[in-house]
Design a protein that fits this description.
single chain; 84 residues; mainly alpha; DUF1640 domain-containing protein
């Protein structure tokens, strides 16, 4: 299913009737555009998957940094109590 609704038959007819393309030219142009839109859909899907992975990594990194900060604060407090 294409993310972009695209009627290749209507395009081919419009190219034939309005732009005076030959039937072969009109069908070829419509098919080429349909292929291009499918490629765009595939790229959009890949980008969506990458975005999801980036969000997951961002959450993991936030948790790790928060944990490291908590440990650093705890160690600092413990050292401060030992010194005094």
């Amino acid at each position: 299913m294409s993310l972009i609704p695209f009627d290749t038959l209507k395009l081919a007819r419009d190219l034939r009737d309005r732009a005076h393309f030959s039937p072969e030219q009109a069908e070829g142009a419509a098919a080429a555009l349909a292929d291009a839109f499918q490629d765009l859909d595939a790229k959009k899907s890949a980008i969506d998957r990458i975005d999801a992975k980036i969000e997951a990594l961002e959450q993991r990194l936030t948790i790790k940094i928060g944990s490291m900060l908590a440990v650093a604060v705890g160690v600092s407090i413990a050292l401060a109590k030992l010194v005094h």
